[in-house]
Amino acid sequence: MTQSICTYGFIPVRTEPSEGAQLETQILFGESFDILEHQPGWVQIQCHYDGYRGWIDSKLVTKMEERDVEHWNRSSGHIVTKPFVKVIRESDSTPMLLSSGSRVVFNSDDRNAIRIGSDEYFWQGTLPSGRFDLEEVARGYLNAPYLWGGRTFYGIDCSGLVQNVYKAGGVFLPRNASQQINYGEVVSFVEEAGTGDLAFFDNEEGAIVHVGLCLGQGRILHASGSVRIDAFDHQGIYNKEERAYTHHLRVIKRIIQTSE
User: Fold this and answer.
1) Any catalytic annotation for residue 210?
2) Does domain 134-254 correspond to CATH entry 3.90.1720.10?
3) Cα(145)–Cα(258) distance, rounded to whole angstroms?
4) How far is Cα 144 from Cα 159, in angstroms, rounded to an integer?
5) Is 222 a catalytic residue?
6) Given the residues 78, 210, 214, 247, the one annotated as active site
7) Catalytic residue among 6, 47, 214, 222
8) With a threshold of 0.85, does the pTM exceed it?
9) Active site residue 158
10) What phi-psi label fits residue 117: left (phi over 0), alpha (psi between -120 and 50 degrees) or beta?
11) Per-residue pLDDT tens over the stretch 244-257
């Protein structure tokens, strides 16, 4: 077996084959990956979506044929846009929550069912409509706690938030803010920033250390402590509780055209 698909709400990906190692990122339900190396209790993987590498618990790897993974990736699917949706796993009738950014393919005889490998997952509630509202998806993460390497409402980091929101709209962005800054066109003035534009922030050494989603009218949605909305201007993000600027603005980039 050289490839697989995540069949859990998410799988933690760590920098080393140890439960105490730093969280690097998370694989979401329906995302596929290559299996690169085996160690006792662990496998090294590379995510197909963004190329990220790391180590995951071998017990969380679903055995699959490579052709089934390739067929899944070629199939037309939907990206979950709500903070959570529930599915029921057929094999043991247990519920599971999928988070925003998960990928589902309704590929079974039952129109509400998702088949991955030998198991099926039955969607609960209204089926995805395919409609995408960037601000609505972004606001669905409000109050999620900040978590380095996180990509779900249980915990998310600044670049994971941006990546997931754009993924829901069918637009690829890489995993890290330092990579995301290379995408899009420069917006010259803060006053011209519209909904969905990305604002990047640097430290004293000039390294990109933060990214957020502009909402227009001098507002930004970003993950800092938690996912929140703050004011920002040509200097950076202003935190009214701290009565101080917390992030220094480097540049604003426009990825897609959106109506405000």
Assistant:
1) yes
2) yes
3) 27
4) 14
5) yes
6) 210
7) 222
8) yes
9) yes
10) left
11) 999 999 999 999 76
